[in-house]
Amino acid sequence: MKKIAKKSFHSGLVKKTIKINASKEKVWRKISNIVGLPTWLVDVKKTVYLSKKKKDVGAVRLITFTDGNQIEEHVVAWKNGEFFTYVATEGLPLRAYVATISIKIKSKNLTELTWQSYLNSKKMTEKQFAEFMRYLGSFYEASLENLKKILEK
Fold first, then answer.
1. 4-50 pLDDT tens trace
2. Which of 142, 90, 84, 113 is nearest to 24 (CA)?
3. CA 16-118-98 angle, 5° bins
């Protein structure tokens, strides 16, 4: 008899950091344009505002990926020039997804960017969750490498 993998809820953290040879202002200008994702986020077709607000707490965006998947995200915290935090409300196999993108100056033209998220899955096996975590980590890394390339031009 084959053992059936038990499905349950799982929590995890994904954190990726990259150093970018660009001023903090230049990096912030790029990342704080919350619908500018198609220029640096991997596999994003388009991003549109679902709110009148374009920045700060209360701004809402809808991301459409090249595979047709859509994710709705709401900005829930914002400190100009330093960080913003958003939650995904639709489109992921998760019950919770909270992410923060933050930057800090390392030197005049060296900025460190950290993208960190906490997630809690819908019911899935441990193997499915581990695969999703690996996927998310590599998605963050590839996207951050893209961002670095663009900003260091």
1. 789 999 999 999 999 999 999 999 999 999 999 999 999 999 999 99
2. 113
3. 100
**Predicted TM-score of the model (pTM):** 0.94
Q: Cβ distance 34 to 60 under 8 Å?
A: no
Q: Are 111 and 30 in contact (CB under 8 A)?
A: no
Query: Hey, what are 104's tokens?
Result: 């800090």
C-beta of residue 34 within 8 angstroms of C-beta of residue 54: yes
Q: Angle at CA 25, nearest 5°, toward 29 and 106?
A: 130
For 43, which DSSP code?
A: T
Instruction: Give the gyration radius of the chain's Cα atoms.
Output: 16
| Span 43-82, pLDDT tens digits | 999 999 999 999 999 999 999 999 999 999 999 999 999 9
Burial of 22 (0-12, 13-18, 19+ CB in 10 A): buried
Task: Name the CATH superfamily for 11-151.
Answer: START domain (3.30.530.20)
Task: Give the start-to-end residue ranges of the domains of the chain.
Answer: 11-151
